[in-house]
Amino acid sequence: MTEHQMIVLSVIVSGLLVLLVRIVYVLPTQRRPRQTVLRLEPTDERLMVFLGSGGHTGEMIRLLNQLPLENVKWRTYVISIGDANSAKRIEELESGRRGQVDYVFVKRARNVGESLMSSVHSTTSSFVSIARQLASLRKLPTVLLLNGPGTCVPIAYVLFACKCAGLCSTRILYVESLARVSKLSMSGLLLRPIADRVLVQWPQLTSKYTGVEYSGILV
């Protein structure tokens, strides 16, 4: 191996080591706070919420009704393209409230009944759509609130990548669906390693999965 190749290899290995250390530092798994309620911190100036359509949107609306939204200056709602019902419901919720409210529309990661092969393409397309939309924001959120389904995963991972790059310090909060009694959803399993808090609504899940919190019925 030539000296030039050794230098290039050393730079690549050093870069990968730095990236690995950064990822380990950002990962919240070992330092999740043990809290009893879902709450917004005084530093949470910019809230981003994903509305997952159908029952997921219904649960999120009930969850948002319990939070002091007006204390958050900027609120951004991410909605799947074509989900007019979620857009209507969140507009009704925000009607008359103070603060800056924005709506972002992204491609779905997977449609109901979609085949595995087709879902790979749609998920990739969703990642690109989400990355573009987030790049267009003036500032990234200080807190991201999710409750599924699949499209919330690309949103969380794009923001986690931004955290690793030092572009933001977004807290990722995931609330598992009330319907998940005995096991986490696929979204919950995928987000558990990177979420700052994973809240479940049935106590038996805390003995099955490490790092999850039970705070009673939230929705």
Can I get a quick summary?
The protein is of the alpha/beta class and 219 residues long.
Give a quick set of tags describing it.
alpha/beta; membrane; Rossmann fold
How many strands, what sense, and barrel or not for the largest sheet? 7 strands, parallel
Q: Using the alpha-carbon principal axes, give the shape.
A: globular
Average pLDDT metric: 86
Count of DSSP H/I helices: 7
Helix-and-strand structural type:
alpha/beta
The CATH architecture designation is: 3-Layer(aba) Sandwich
Number of domains: 1
- What is the distance, rounded to the nearest whole angstrom, between the alpha carbons of the first and last residues? 62 Å
Function: Involved in protein N-glycosylation. Essential for the second step of the dolichol-linked oligosaccharide pathway. Anchors the catalytic subunit ALG13 to the ER.
Transmembrane segments: 6-25
Subunit structure: Heterodimer with ALG13 to form a functional enzyme.
GO molecular function, one term: N-acetylglucosaminyldiphosphodolichol N-acetylglucosaminyltransferase activity
Describe the structure.
- The chain has about 220 residues and is of the alpha/beta class.
- The protein has a single domain (about 45-215), classed as 3-Layer(aba) Sandwich (Rossmann fold), CATH 3.40.50.2000.
- The chain has seven helices and seven strands, in the order H-E-H-E-H-E-H-E-H-E-H-E-H-E.
- It has helices at about 5-25, 55-65, 85-95, 115-135, 150-165, 185-190, 205-210, and strands at about 45-50, 75-80, 100-105, 145, 170-175, 195-200, 210-215.
- The chain has a seven-stranded parallel β-sheet, with helices on both faces.
- Helix 2 (about 55-65) links the parallel strand 1 (about 45-50) and strand 2.
- It is globular and about 65 Å long.
